[in-house]
Amino acid sequence: MESLQVQDESILIEKVCQIYEKISKLETLKPSKDVDNLFTQLVHACIPHSSINIATLPANIQEIRSKLITLCGEAGGLLEAHFSTILGSFKNPLHHLNIFPYYSNYLKLGHLEYDILNQHYSTIAETPKRVAFVGSGPLPFTSIVLASYHLKDTTFHNYDIDSMTNSMASRLVSADHDLY
């Protein structure tokens, strides 16, 4: 049984490394059919539970993992910027959030984050009056979901190191008088 597990882990590592090689050779990580396909493959490869101990992986595999995490972050930021631009073209951007392919994930994540936050405020009669998100990106879904569904009386402040990103995010929520 243990050798089967080691074999499955080896296959997973090899598959992830192959996907990394393809991703790292792309000219750009901006949303496209190729980019979307490769990241979808990566997600599907990583969804099943694995008991791989990252700390015991060889240094070259850990380096690939580290680089892949960076590439995923970059691709995620470009995906959010792409959809923030599209959403910003609507008169009421927040009425169209469902065009983002992972919107349902953010709804679930927002509920989970609210539950976690609520556990810390369960001993206090009031919910937080202000919440700040640092590094909120061009598509501040977490604060939008929390403000829309869970913490309607809370003021949210979103910050990002990139002023263009802040402008994109602000453009999305400024049309909604309940959130702005």
UniProtKB/TrEMBL annotation:
This is Nicotianamine synthase. InterPro entries: Nicotian_synth, SAM-dependent_MTases_sf. It comes from the Eukaryota. GO terms for biological process: methylation. Belongs to the nicotianamine synthase (NAS)-like family. Keywords: Methyltransferase, S-adenosyl-L-methionine, Transferase. Its EC number is 2.5.1.43. The keyword Manganese does not apply. It comes from Tanacetum coccineum. Pfam families: NAS.
